[in-house]
Amino acid sequence: MGYLSTDKKKITTKTFAEMKQAGEKVTMLTAYDFTTAGIIDAAGIDSILIGDSASNVMAGNADTLPITVDQMIYHARSVARAVNHAMVVCDMPFGSYQISREEALRNACRMMKETGVDALKLEGGVEMIDTIKALIDAGIPVHGHLGLTPQSVNKFGGYGIRAKEEAEAEKLISDAIALDKAGCFAIVLEKVPAKIAAEVTRQVKAVTIGIGAGNGCDGQVLVYADAMGMTQGFKPKFLRHFAQVGAEITKGVQAYVDAVKTGDYPNIEESY
Ligand code: KIV
């Protein structure tokens, strides 16, 4: 079975805004390598995120903090090379934008120049507004990220649901409005009550992309390895497995081992 072919036009920030206006849901999955990104793009996804979740999924780290700008650039370049249709967004990793506006701008320009992605994503609310504005003023589309922001896992003390209490919910809504006013074209809302995410979605022009944030967002994102059933022992309430790729790989590897061990592979037709 080959890839699905797609003659769809490239998705841009303008397309995102049009989709929100038209009430069309925006789909996003992560990818970190050329081969997977090519399959996901050809299957018709609207947007691909080179998430700093590469730190967990690709490198096996316990959180997203260790991944570096150089490592994100490597992943992002590999993904961008594969994609024709989807909007490609890359995470700015922990430490690359928190120190100063100047350093954030320097890292952001480098990431744009060296990868070919379409936009950058960073975590945080009003405390990041000056940085977000500096990037947008430099011509870089910025995707915000509120609610559970995994780069702050140590501050939160875990990966629990955010904005359950009224004060935090109010802060999330005002952060989203600030990001929207600053010009973010989209905002991830991670692990927040569906009612709060729907309220944010109503109040902002930016496209809201939910993960564990209910059905009232403008779109949804999942880590592809989670959604495709490749990760072991991770099944939060919001996660649905849309395929069992892990089990398929296991079957394929077992068939390969069996064929080699029994001398069935390679056969005459598979030999020179
Ligand atoms: O890094 C990531 O994969 C993300 C998504 C889960 C939104 O930020």
UniProtKB/TrEMBL annotation:
Its cofactor is Mg(2+). The keyword Transferase applies. It is an enzyme of class 2 (transferase). The active site is at residue 190. It catalyses: (6R)-5,10-methylene-5,6,7,8-tetrahydrofolate + 3-methyl-2-oxobutanoate + H2O = 2-dehydropantoate + (6S)-5,6,7,8-tetrahydrofolate. One of its GO terms (biological process) is methylation. Pfam families: Pantoate_transf (PF02548). Binds 1 Mg(2+) ion per subunit. One of its GO terms (molecular function) is methyltransferase activity. Pathway: Cofactor biosynthesis; (R)-pantothenate biosynthesis; (R)-pantoate from 3-methyl-2-oxobutanoate: step 1/2. One of its GO terms (cellular component) is cytoplasm. Keywords: Cytoplasm, Magnesium, Metal-binding, Methyltransferase, Pantothenate biosynthesis, Transferase. 3-methyl-2-oxobutanoate binds at residues 52-53, 91, 121. Catalyzes the reversible reaction in which hydroxymethyl group from 5,10-methylenetetrahydrofolate is transferred onto alpha-ketoisovalerate to form ketopantoate. Homodecamer; pentamer of dimers. NCBIfam families: panB, PRK00311.1. Belongs to the PanB family. This is 3-methyl-2-oxobutanoate hydroxymethyltransferase. The gene is panB.
